[in-house]
Amino acid sequence: KKMTDIVDLSPQLPISTSYLGDGLYVEYDGYHVCLYASNGIQKTNEVFLEPTVLEAFTRWIRENGLVRSS
Predict the structure, then answer these.
(1) Across-strand partners of 45?
(2) Cβ(44)–Cβ(37) under 8 Å?
(3) What was the pLDDT predicted at 3?
(4) What whole-number distance in Å separates Cα of residue 6 and Cα of residue 8?
(5) Any idea of the CA torsion for 50, 30, 16, 59, to the nearest 10 degrees?
(6) CB atoms within 10 A of CB 33
(7) Which helix (H) or strand (E) holds 3?
(8) Phi and psi for 21 in degrees, rounded to 5?
(9) pLDDT digits (tens, 9 = 90+) for 7-41
(10) Distance between CA atoms of 15 and 28, rounded to whole angstroms?
(11) How far apart, in whole angstroms, are the C-alpha atoms of residue 31 and residue 50?
(12) Which of 11, 16, 59, 66 has the most CB atoms in a 10 Å sphere around its CB?
């Protein structure tokens, strides 16, 4: 399966921030998936994943057996 078969990254309104654990948060701005760390007061590190990078990352996760196939 291609990433586009699994996740719809078509432009849309931003999605609310979610806490993933271990001080890591995720949000979506309508184009990028933003992963960031926070010290509880402010963002300390940010990584913006554009759709092609998110697809490559998701493929890497699957290829390395880090997620179960559905």
Answers:
(1) 37
(2) yes
(3) 47
(4) 7
(5) -30
(6) 19
(7) helix 3-6
(8) 120, 165
(9) 665 556 667 899 999 999 999 988 899 999 998 88
(10) 5
(11) 7
(12) 59
Element (H, E) at 52: helix 51-63
Q: How far is the C-alpha of 65 from the C-alpha of 50, rounded, in Å?
A: 23
Cα dihedral 5, 52, 70, 36 sign: negative
Angle at 23 between CA 19 and CA 28, to 5 degrees: 40
The residues, ordered by sequence, that sit 6+ positions from 40 with a Cβ below 8 Å of its Cβ are none
Is 66 in contact with 59 (CB distance < 8 Å)?
no
Q: State both tokens at 32.
A: 């990028």
> Do 37 and 45 meet the contact criterion of CB atoms below 8 Å apart?
yes
